[in-house]
Amino acid sequence: MKPAPFEYSAPTTVAEAIEALSHDDAKVLAGGQSLIPLMAMRLSRFDRLVDLRRIPELSGCTRVNGTVRIGAMTRQADAEHDPIVAEGAPLLAKALPNVGHYQIRNQGTVGGSIVHADPSAELPTAALALDATIEIAGASGVRRVPASEFFLGTMETAVGDHEIVTAIEFPVWGPGSGFAVEEMARRHGDFAVVGAMCGVRIEGGTVAQSAIAMFGVGSVPVRCGAAESMLTGSTVDGLDLGAVAQAAVADLDPPDDLHASGAYRRAVGAALVERALRAAIEEAGHA
Amino acid sequence: MHEVALTVNGTNMRIEVEPRMTLADALRDRCDLTGTHLACEHGVCGSCTISVDGRAVRSCLMFAVQADGADVMTIEGLANGEELHPVQKAFQAEHGLQCGFCTPGFVMSVTKFLETTPDPTDDQIRDGISGNLCRCTGYQGIVRAVKRAAAELNGQS
Fold first, then answer.
1. By CA distance, what is A46's nearest residue in B?
2. Is this model's pTM higher than 0.90 or not?
3. Contact between A249 and A273 (Cβ < 8 Å)
4. Which residue, A167, A226, B121, B141, is the most exposed by fewest CB within 10 angstroms?
5. Which of A72, A76, A22 is nearest to A52 (CA)?
6. ipTM of this predicted complex?
7. Which residue of A has its CA nearest to B46?
8. Do A104 and B58 touch (CB under 8 A)?
9. Per-residue pLDDT of chain A (287 residues; tens, 9 = 90+)
10. Which among B127, B124, B114 is positioned nearest to B154, based on CA atoms?
């Protein structure tokens, strides 16, 4: 259970980090809470780790242009307790306490979890649900990728080998919005077997905006577009949330594994979507 | 080899480490502080929990090179001389351990947990210790120990 040998760089600027990544078989070290176990079990080995912890500009939460911008190296525990996140991105604030255990969140970073792209992780799902934008820096400059194009497969993303994620921007929903996170895990803090995140914004009794995203149901987190279209534009009082939840899982084909069968994930997933929607609508002020 | 300068339990130390050496191994093998226990070595069990810059972290999920400049506290730094820390006393009084292997990790986790949650509910206690595994006690004694420690710490302040 000891990692294979590697060289270590601790750059202090993004430019230095990109330079360090361009040589060898190098890998970014963010919080290390997923990477180091993979290395300890020798599932991964690298010539060099480039530790981003010493780059101050990569940490912190700010309100920018209608978004909550979170530096990629912001620790999950810091984002969890940041009033800017609580006010501007309540869904993220609700998702964060479900990430690992608190000792993990003390080291784990927001960007690290999103780039790791575990299909049962909360933060990639929150990014997808909120239509976040991921900012990526590389030798040729900075590019911005929408969350909908970012997650390509299990632990596969749009980030290239010689690039780093510098920040994630989560759009702020306006007044009248409500959010909820529901998940089923064997033990609090363990990876979820299945989970759902919902957001609604209600204007004059009508759903003006909605988002339903699920995790633990495939190789990437998924948005449930058909179910969202049943919500958006409808009056809240007439909604059949059970039918919306069934529509959310209708096209899913979750995997069977040791923890649960695909059929079980679908059944539980539908219940979680319904529960999350009910809570989100209640929070939006229209119980 | 990298030279790492860090403070451990109030003492400044300089150690030489390979990049791949975890902070847990460095504490045990370079600093001769074997109170930090390693069990799963991949971040599941919590046995190796220590405090780094005031936060509870798993020392098997951090490389020693990352701790350059850090302020580390291990289980050895908790007692005040011969006087045990209230959390240590509570684990003893409530039989919050049997074999004791997981205990340093539990004590460090609980100590940090009570700093941010001084008056925890039962649910909060169970959540607070969910990152640590104990195979002996069935957790009842540990939960009682957390309650006793919280009461004593609150009485002190």
1. B20
2. yes
3. yes
4. B121
5. A72
6. 0.95
7. A103
8. yes
9. 899 999 999 999 999 999 999 987 999 999 999 999 999 999 999 999 999 999 999 999 999 999 999 999 999 999 999 999 999 999 999 999 999 999 999 999 999 999 999 999 999 999 999 999 999 999 999 999 999 999 999 999 999 999 999 999 999 999 999 999 999 998 777 889 999 999 999 999 999 999 999 999 999 999 999 999 999 999 999 899 999 999 999 999 999 998 899 999 999 999 999 999 999 999 998 65
10. B114
Contact B20 A3 (CB under 8 A): yes
H-state helical runs in A178-257: 225-231, 241-250
A57: its two tokens: 């500009």
Q: Does B22 touch chain A (CB under 8 A)?
A: yes
> Amino acid identity of A219?
S
Looking at residue B80, the DSSP 8-state letter turns out to be B
Compare CB distances from A103 to B18, B42, B58 and report the shortest one's residue.
B58
- Cβ under 8 Å to A: B residues 23-42: 25, 40-42
Given the DSSP bridges, would you call strands B49-52 and B55-58 parallel, antiparallel or unpaired? antiparallel
Instruction: Tell me the two tokens of residue A271.
Output: 């219940």
Tokens coding A171: 């759009």
Q: Which residue of A6, A9, A29, A36 to mutate against B (max B Cβ within 10 Å)?
A: A36
Phi and psi torsions of A108, nearest 5°: -65, 145
C-alpha pair distances (Å), A278 with each of A126, A199, A236, A282, B87: 18, 10, 10, 6, 41
Q: Measured between CB atoms, does B149 come within 8 Å of chain A? A: no
Q: Walk me through the domains of chain B, giving residue ranges and CATH numbers.
A: 2-77 (3.10.20.30), 86-153 (1.10.150.120)
CA geometry: angle at A12 spanning A9 and A15, to 5°? Answer: 90
